[in-house]
Amino acid sequence: MKPVGILMWEHRLIERVIGLFPGLIAGIGQTNRVDTAFIQTAVDFIRTYADRTHHGKEEDILFKKLENKDMLPEHRKIMVELINEHIQARDMVKKLVAATERYLEGQDTVEEITAHLKSLALFYPEHIRKEDKDFFFQSMDYFSKEELDEMMREFQEFDRRMVHEKYKAVAEKLMGKPIEWSPPGMVG
Length: 188
Fold this sequence. Notes:
Blueprint: H1 3-18, H2 21-31, H3 36-67, H4 73-104, H5 110-140, H6 145-175
Helix pairs in contact: 1-3, 1-5, 2-5, 3-4, 3-6, 4-5
């Protein structure tokens, strides 16, 4: 398997979660109530899995390695677009969180929440399509077999670290302060 195989496999899970949004939106339209627990769980999934884990491998490993390659201009253009789309997705999630927090405080942000959910539901399938069809396979041609094998190892190490990063952040939130802690064999 090439590194893009892992990224595309992750896309399938992201698509499944984002695929739940139309039903959530329909439910909100019928009841004028927001399932805040679902949204909070979906936001955690997007932030931790789709953004930090998945986009993290793209940005911190694949795209950084591609920066040093003599890429065709159209491939470099797509890579810049993808990076900007990741920033756009983070902003959409941030706005959804803010609207949900105001809803929990008693403000009527139902339409705003629905609009943000619709934006995410439209954004992710197109973003994933662009990566899967227009970029991932093409980007692999810039690497030797040895470089691809090394990237696979880096992806695996990146994933191994994620659970520790996630739950260190949870501990810090519960404690109300940053903590110095890292598991054996890991720095940070």
